[in-house]
Amino acid sequence: MDLRYINTFHTIVEAGGFNKAAEKLCYTQSTITFHVSQLEKELGVQLFEKAGRHMVLTKAGQELVPYVENVLQSVNNMKSFRSVIEECQGDIRIAAPESLLCFHLPKILREFRKQAPRVHIYLDSMTSTSVYRAIRENKTDIGIFYDLPVDDATIKVVPYKDFDFVMFASPKIKKLYSDFITPNQDFSSLARICQPAAGRVRKRFDEYIKSKNFTMGPTIEIRGTQTIKNLVKNDMGICFLPKFTIQEELDKDVLVEIPIDKKFEPIHAVYAYRKDKWLSPPLKLFFQLLEQYKSLED
């Protein structure tokens, strides 16, 4: 189907008549009539009919209008496709806790890379508190972090996702120590494997151990989530992490969830940026992808 016929039809409707469309398109009256007749022939319907001295849309013509508008809009989008792609270039710096950066964001970054292949991506792994500080000091374009009190009016904070937490161990450890609910138990031969103190995740882990008055062995502290998982896999102890970070191991029964009797509220994640930050095309695209992935399960 010739796009000229579609454009002529749309111009007639917009301009309000055949003569006005001819003037606007710099066509002769016969050309306008020919385009309409060819479009009617291809569609197999009559699009205009006489009403006195004027040509008006038939019922079929009226129903065709939104389809034509969609086609022309798509054509305009395609014409600007190259400029949009070329516009989405430059740099983007993203800061997030290691758990989010390593186990949640890769699928978003993969899609971002697909849509903006010319953008340089700089990733910074740091604690939620450090992410917040990096945003305040304008050292990152966007930060994703576990919810913290934000009292800076210069920072825009957007709710992102809620993440569930689980206590977990290797199948061997769970078999040896099956009860992590009864208080006052002696687990002095079992290490508590966790990130350094002050983090939101570590705090919840500590709260549960303390509430049960468990006697634990020496603590193993390490910031890397992947290292924590590897230590737990090797029967070194127990840990408490966002469930999405170990979902693959849970599915394969490499790690197992430990039942506990305390229901922790999911931890809330947000993304934030400075309000005076110029929202470059790469940054806008990344925001769009975050919003798309909000409702998806991990």
Characterization of the model:
By secondary structure, the chain is of the alpha/beta class. It has helices spanning 3-15, 18-25, 29-43, 59-79, 81-87, 98-103, 106-115, 128-136, 171-176, 200-212, 225-233, 247-251, 281-293, and strands spanning 48-51, 54-57, 90-96, 119-125, 142-146, 155-163, 165-169, 186-187, 191-194, 215-216, 220-221, 237-242, 256-258, 267-274. A hairpin with a 2-residue loop joins strand 1 (48-51) and strand 2 (54-57). The longest helix has 21 residues, at 59-79. The radius of gyration is 30 Å and the shape is elongated. The two termini are 44 Å apart.
Q: Would you kindly provide a brief summary of this structure?
A:
The chain is an alpha/beta fold.
Arithmetic mean pLDDT:
89
User: Uncertain spans, ≥5 residues at pLDDT below 50?
Assistant: none
- Main sheet characteristics: 5 strands, mixed
- How far apart, in Å, are the first and last alpha carbons? 44 Å
Strand order of the largest sheet: 4-3-5-14-6
Q: Would you list the SSEs in sequence order as H and E?
A: HHHEEHHEHHEHEEEHEEHEEHEHEEH
Structural class: alpha/beta
Number of strands: 14
> What overall geometry do the principal axes of the alpha carbons give?
elongated
Helix % is: 40-55%
Rg from Cα: 30 Å
Question: What percent strand?
Answer: 15-25%
Counted by DSSP, the helix tally is 13
Task: Considering the chains and any ligands shown, give keywords for the structure.
five-stranded mixed β-sheet; alpha/beta; 298 residues
List the helices and strands and how they pair.
Blueprint: H1 3-15, H2 18-25, H3 29-43, E1 48-51, E2 54-57, H4 59-79, H5 81-87, E3 90-96, H6 98-103, H7 106-115, E4 119-125, H8 128-136, E5 142-146, E6 155-163, E7 165-169, H9 171-176, E8 186-187, E9 191-194, H10 200-212, E10 215-216, E11 220-221, H11 225-233, E12 237-242, H12 247-251, E13 256-258, E14 267-274, H13 281-293
Parallel strand pairs: 3-4, 3-5, 8-10, 9-11, 9-12
Antiparallel strand pairs: 1-2, 5-14, 6-14, 7-12, 7-13
Helix pairs in contact: 1-2, 1-3, 1-4, 2-3, 7-13
